[in-house]
Write a structure and sequence with these properties.
With about 375 residues, this protein is of the alpha/beta class. About 25% of the residues lie in helices and about 30% in strands. Strands 5-4-3-6-7-9-8 form a seven-stranded mixed sheet, with helices on both faces. A seven-stranded mixed sheet has the order 14-13-12-15-18-20-19, sandwiched between helices. β16 and β17 form a beta hairpin.
């Protein structure tokens, strides 16, 4: 936990789940820059926050916690961001209902007077959210985006310009930058181009040629990523009424492959991204038979599943948390899989070879074997003894 200090107060903040080994803070210079701008500077007056305030993409609840007195609406694709927000509100003495938590799948407010946007890593997610919020923005809406310099590109500014109105940027401070956008009510309102659908290649096992649905923000949303493609070629061949989990499911193509290969299996698709889980469900419903059995869970890894009830976990863990490279998410997934698996149950993982997941799996499970590998990827198998 670290303390964020503003001109008015200090706030104890942490990411979720809180991990003492995690070296990263729950905010960065981009969040600080935005908060200073809201308070006012020598060049500008404070922003009037008495109206409807909407915070989009608040990564760990830092912005929402500081602004809790103005009862903002937070819109995020991240279940973990919502949990972090609630935990940070509590540790700073603010009521849970002082921030209205919405996912990107929820209907946004009808009117927005102040729109604060933390620029996401995914340009597609930003595009989708701006389209969804544009009808609620009016000529007097204050629109400010924020991000680190490396996160803000010409394409980012063009999206604001095309969907909301004329856009300019601030000077960089501590490698962070602000985006100022003036709403233009005369801009044509067009629907979001998302979701995007594509057909899988013909050489990826049971899912060959199937159509995949990708909502905005899904990793590699316009094509099959090479790691998943490698995984699809080396999934275990199983039969019978297995309980299978596609952990970190993304668009659900791995879990769908398991379901098509073993019609008796029940597959649970889990991701912390709301967009991912709805993508996985639409992909599954469009391709699996009417008798196929599946569950779809937005959550913190496997924490919502009972222990020792799963036969097989399939996992392609992320190794980034926003812009930061970290193995914390993979480590949490591996521990969760061991708890969820029954004795004799298996965790199958695909990952970049250089990440060295085999070391963690041996430490957690006491065993790990390499199923397949190429110069870039490995598929690993660990068994719960």
């Amino acid at each position: 936990m670290n303390r964020l200090t503003t001109s008015g107060a200090g706030y104890d903040l942490a990411r979720f789940p809180e991990d003492p080994r995690d070296p990263f803070r729950a905010w960065d210079a981009a969040d600080e820059y935005l908060l200073r701008r809201l308070e006012g500077t020598e060049e500008s007056e404070p922003v009037d926050l008495t109206g409807s305030v909407v915070v989009v993409g608040d990564r760990w609840g830092a912005l929402s916690t500081v602004l809790a007195g103005h009862r903002p609406v937070q819109i995020t694709d991240s279940y973990l961001a919502q949990r972090a927000t609630l935990a940070n509100l509590d540790r700073n003495g603010a009521a849970a209902d002082s921030v209205r938590l919405l996912s990107v799948r929820d209907t946004p407010p009808d009117r927005v007077d102040v729109l604060l946007v933390r620029v996401p890593k995914s340009l597609a997610l930003l595009e989708d959210q701006l389209h969804r919020l544009a009808p609620a923005v009016h000529a007097g809406t204050v629109v400010i985006g924020t991000g680190m310099v490396k996160e803000i590109h010409t394409s980012t500014l063009r999206l604001f310009e095309r969907i909301i109105g004329p856009t300019r940027t601030s000077l960089a401070v501590k490698k962070a930058r602000l985006i100022f956008c003036t709403p233009d009510p005369d801009l044509p309102r067009t629907p979001s181009p998302w979701p995007y659908r594509y057909d899988l290649p013909e050489d990826v096992g049971p899912v060959s040629g199937r159509t995949v649905t990708n909502h905005a923000g899904i990793f590699c949303a316009e094509r099959l990523d090479i790691g998943t493609r490698f995984f699809l070629g080396h999934l275990p061949e199983r039969s019978g009424p297995d309980r299978v989990v596609d952990l970190g499911c993304g668009n659900g193509v791995v879990g769908l492959s398991a379901a098509l290969a073993n019609p008796e299996a029940r597959v649970t698709f889990i991701d912390e991204s709301y967009q991912a889980v709805v993508s996985a469900e639409e992909t599954f419903r469009a391709n699996a038979g009417p008798d196929a059995k599946a569950d779809f869970v937005v959550g913190d890894g496997l924490t919502r599943l009972p222990p020792a009830g799963v036969d097989l976990v399939l996992n392609n863990p992320p190794f980034h948390s926003h812009q930061a490279t970290t193995d914390a998410t993979a480590r949490t997934m591996f521990h969760g899989a061991r708890t969820a698996l029954r004795p004799g149950g298996e965790l199958w993982v695909v990952g970049n070879r250089h990440l060295g997941y085999h070391t963690q799996l041996r430490r957690i499970f006491g065993n790990c074997t390499t199923v397949a590998g190429d110069p870039k990827f490995v598929v690993l198998r660990a068994v719960k003894r």
